[in-house]
Fold this sequence. Notes:
The structure holds 2 protein chains of 2 kinds. By secondary structure, chain A is α/β, with parallel strands linked by helices. Chain A folds into 3 domains: 3-174, 3-Layer(aba) Sandwich (Rossmann fold), CATH 3.40.50.970; 193-348, 3-Layer(aba) Sandwich (Rossmann fold), CATH 3.40.50.1220; 369-540, Thiamin diphosphate (ThDP)-binding fold, Pyr/PP domains (Rossmann fold, 3-Layer(aba) Sandwich), CATH 3.40.50. Helices cover 38% and strands 17% of the residues of chain A. Chain A is built from 24 helices and 20 strands. In chain A, helix 13 (285-288) links the parallel strand 12 and strand 13. Chain A is globular and about 70 Å long. The N and C termini of chain A lie far apart (74 Å). Chain B is 31% helix and 34% strand. The termini of chain B are far apart. In chain B, strands 5, 6, 7, 8 and 9 form a 5-stranded antiparallel beta sheet that branches. Chain B has a 4-stranded antiparallel beta sheet with strand order 2-3-1-4, covered by helices on one side. The chains are: A alpha/beta, B alpha+beta. At the A-B interface, loops of A face helix 1, helix 2 and helix 6 of B. The site of thiamine diphosphate has 20 residues of chain A, from helix 18, helix 20 and helix 22.
Amino acid sequence: MKEKITGAEALMRSLEAEGVDVLFGYPGGAIMPTYDALYDHRTTLHHILVRHEQGAAHAAQGYARVSGRVGVAIATSGPGAMNTITGIADAMIDSTPLVVICGQVGAAMLGTDAFQEVDVISVTQPISKWAFQIRKAEDVAWAVSRAFYIARSGRPGPVVLDFTKNAQTGMVDYEPARVDYIRSYKPVPVPTDDVIRQAAELINQSQRPLVLVGQGVELGNAREELCRFIEKANMPAGCTMLGLSALPSGHRLNMGMLGMHGNLAPNVMTNRCDLIIAVGMRFDDRVTGNLDTYARQAKVIHFDIDPSEINKNVRADVAVVGDCKQTLVRVTELLAEQKHTEWVDGFKPYRQEEEQKVILPAIQPSEGPLLMGEIVRRVSEATHDSAIMVTDVGQNQLFGCRYFRFSQGRSIVTSGGCGTMGFGLPAAIGATFGAPERTVCLFVGDGGLQMTIQELGTIMEQGAPVKIILLNNNFLGNVRQWQYMFFNKRYSFTPMLNPDYEGICRSYGIPSRTVTERAELDEAIRQMLDTPGPFLLQCGVKEEDNVLPMTPPGANVDEMLMEIK
Amino acid sequence: MDCDKSKAGQCGDCESCGRCEKAHEGETLYTMLIYSENFAGILNQITAVFTRRQVNIESLNVCASSTPGVHKYTITCYCTEEMAKMLTKQIEKKIDVLQAHYFTDADIFILEACLIKVSTPLILDNKDVSRIVRMHGARIVEVNPTYSIIEKKGMTVDILSLFQQLNDLGVVLQFVRSGRIAVTKSTTERLDKYLEERLREKC
Lengths: 565, 203
Ligand SMILES: Cc1ncc(C[n+]2csc(CCOP(=O)(O)OP(=O)(O)O)c2C)c(N)n1
């Protein structure tokens, strides 16, 4: 069943064969043949024209994170491709499945410094799971299928396809390809029964186990398996930032967020437990603090799909390398039912201490300017804890992660490993396409919003129903906090003069409102949620608020500051 | 004596070239044997892993392996065993890398080679030269009125010792040492086993 078509047309058919329905992109010279082919497929391949290619990559990330499918971004050669770089690096470190397709000069001109030629493969190889240059039309079907297979399998990640112009225009006897095996690539290792038994034994012997839940649980679609695992032996758990919605916030064993601005109890108990059970997390320094004193008293079981994560930062006594959807079940079968009553109860005093000293003042202040924490919690409540929360980076992100509550999986979209400001707005757009039936709330600072503010144009054009909550403190708040704490309050270039955001929204035809009074907050949130389509709610918040508690960089995980003196 | 890295490989007592205890305290010279598919750009990906972890590559050899379509990389570096494990795991993570393993000198048969170009008039003047060449089991493979070429196969120390002794006599015009090549002493062929296993898994 062969048919002669162009490489660009072959790309379209290959994308359709992969089940792609949305792509985020921006055209240009070297990708024009592909855009020409796309024109004929525009009803099946819904193309979202972004306003900057960084937005395409982040939107594809947002789409992928909430849907579990591969996000697709498309750009032209040279500058177009380079503008996607931040998103590729971000997707790599946060394990987000992405296929980024960019145009490239014709193969005959490669290496000649032709117009808009950049060595995209060399630039992207270290920040992608796979980068491949398609130099002839014959390779399209194979390369696209291989790209999707690599992006979504094992530990997901971004794949780059550098598509030379001659390969787009060249003719090929098209035959669909299906890559689901690569000899040199074993995406899902399977641990032996012995390893499973060793893990179960350690858990059964443990008096004080602590489970660390990472995004791997979501990536492996193993939320239920995780619940059964922790419930059977009644083990308390803490979540990493990207793992926050892998376990319902209200689960009785969920002790909160781990790490630098996480909750006191799980951080303190990290250095009291006798067993750490890490599931799909990678012991990032923002989670561990000082590694030399991190959980030295505890044995460690590390569940991960990526063998290179084992012993990278923390030495594992037992490494369960595989797909946690299977491995958790296998270990759970061998677990003895336990209560660990005293141990679980031991978290309470720390939760109460944090509640009194930090949480209540943050979410129920009686006077003074609006606080980020209370806004986040009100929005969470108004959406019955069932919305998708997207954040940008900074205090808005940390308050968002601390005070938003999650009841469903795949509900948090934030730039974790990279901390990419400007991620939020385009990622939220992508999320509305990845989960059209859900409410998408974005918390963003005045700094981060302006990094990709042009995507308001995309929102306008698509009517993308992003609920933008702009937490405006007239500062690059998170950096200001560090200057306050560690640089003698020298506010070097963190105060920022802001534009009239409502005026900007008017220009884009996006409804907006500004709120500064506590009494109006709930009603304003209601209006935002009740207004169909996009809405920007600007909240004038306390200018010099600090995110607490905090483990200062390099400090021990159990030495959280509850206040700043 | 402190390591003078500017004299890499030439200072005699202290060589950053390969055998200096001081420069590599707590580290071992590991030989990594890596197999990959024959795709472009893999060498870049492999060397980038070393760069990121701040490990210097001491020597590197790439060639086709005995298995059609499979390339073999022999890379030596000084590091701790922990680091060697980490490096090989991160290399193996690259999609088109088949296998990456690390070995100590005891686990493998090793070969290195060098070519030394010397001045013919100067060596004719110096009786020590032919003694040194014979003592090291080296061969003279070219003699013409201007220059002669000495070839030696062996281990790094022996090659460097030959070079140093000749260099001390002031007769050397050029010196080049190859990367290390190595085969394992093990009686099983891990790559073959891996490829068989993968083939079974495919079916
Ligand atoms: C692209 C990028 N540039 C710089 C930073 C460093 N940075 C981290 S948080 C932050 C301040 C963010 O300010 P804003 O967006 O207003 O959010 P806030 O912290 O006030 O909520 C900065 C500059 C970053 N994370 N990303």
